[in-house]
Each structure stands twice: as structure tokens, then as C-alpha cells.
Amino acid sequence: MNFDFTIIAEYWQLIISGIPLILEISFICAMMGTIIGLSTAFLRRKSKILEKVIAAYIDIFRGTPVYVQLVFFCYGLCSLFPSLNNVSPFVWALIVFSLNSGAYLSEIIRAGVEGIDKGQIEAAKALGVSRKDIAKDIVVPLAFRNVLPAVVNEFITLTKETAVVGVIGLHDMMYYSDAVTSKFYSFFEPLLVVFVAYYIMNKVLSLLGKWVERKLKYD
């Protein structure tokens, strides 16, 4: 067993310098995913055609690994349409993870909307409140409150799923870990740093998520 602590001591800061990129992608995509999920949850009720299109989108993105989606969009589509090579890997990551997150959140938000007390909606209708105002002032706020813990969990899930962005050249922790491994031909030490960093980061985010959930219960 050849454990070299000097690799960790010298390169741990380089490896964890990939954390801001992970959090940036995760935060943006969680927000975009929420918007996509909210939009699709309402749009699928507009017509049968929209419902089928949205159902197909959800089925495709929930039925394939995010790694495959990322490579397919960034490399597969770019090989078919060369003009897409002008799109940066960062933008591809945002597109793929937002669509993937939106597919999962669409079902979550739909359940949140269906879980709203119908009495409040009926009371608003009886008072002559328009459908637009009911959706804006009653349905969306209550649905979002119902699903906010799930959105926080989706953000945490995204931080773990983004571990694959190094495959398209983005400088996350795995990218730097692979660079250190290539230099020393040692896998364990850099991966140990990544392992511990991900655990601590997601533990903190999980505690924050539970705090938000408690606040929602008592507010």
C-alpha cells in the first residue's frame, strides 16, 4: 500500500477549486428546472397535443442517464450540426441539466398543484377572481411552497450529477482529480479529496434543506 499524503497536501486546494463551478451549474439548473417544471405542469393541461409532447419529453429525460444526455447533446448533435460547435461546453451543461431537472420537477410540481386544497380555488372563483389571478396568486405560491423541499433536494441531486461535466472539458473537481492522477499515476489520493469534498458539501446542503423544510412547516 503506497499512500502518498503529500499529493493531498499539495493539490487538495486545486481539486476543490472545482466546487464553485459545480454550485453555479447546480443553482442555475435548479432554478431553470423549476421554471421548466412549472411551465410544463400547466401547459400539459392546455391541450392533448401539448400533453403528449410534454409527456414524451419527460419520458425521454427521465429514461436516459444524464451522462448520456450530456455527451449526446455536446458531441452527438455537434457532429451532426457543425454550427453548434460554437456553443460552449458550459452552456451545453446548463441546457442538459436544466432539461433533465425540469423533467423530474415537472412531475413533482404537478403533484404539488394537485395537492392544493380545492376549496381555496372554489372560494376565489365564487368571489369573481379571474383564472389568471387564481393561478398567479393562489395556485403557484401554494404549489411552490408544497414542492420547495423537493426543489432543494433536486439542487442537492444536481451537485452530485454534475460530477460528469469533466467529460465535456469543464473544470470541476473530477477534472482536476484526473489531472493530478495523470501526473502521479495515483488514483486514490485525488479521488479521496473529491469523495470527502462532495460528502461535506452535500451534507451542508442537506442540513440547509432540512432547515428550509422546518421553516415551511412552522411559518
UniProtKB/TrEMBL annotation:
Q: Which InterPro entries match?
A: AA_ABC_transptr_permease_3TM, ArtM/GltK/GlnP/TcyL/YhdX-like, MetI-like, MetI-like_sf
Q: Name the Gene Ontology molecular function terms of this record.
A: transmembrane transporter activity
Q: What's the protein name? A: Amino acid ABC transporter permease
One Pfam family, please name it: BPD_transp_1
The lineage, from the top, is: Bacteria, Bacillati, Bacillota, Erysipelotrichia, Erysipelotrichales
Its family remark reads:
Belongs to the binding-protein-dependent transport system permease family. HisMQ subfamily.
**Organism of derivation:** Amedibacillus dolichus
Signal peptide: which range, if any?
none
User: Taking every annotated instance into account, which residue ranges of this chain make up the domain ABC transmembrane type-1?
Assistant: 19-209
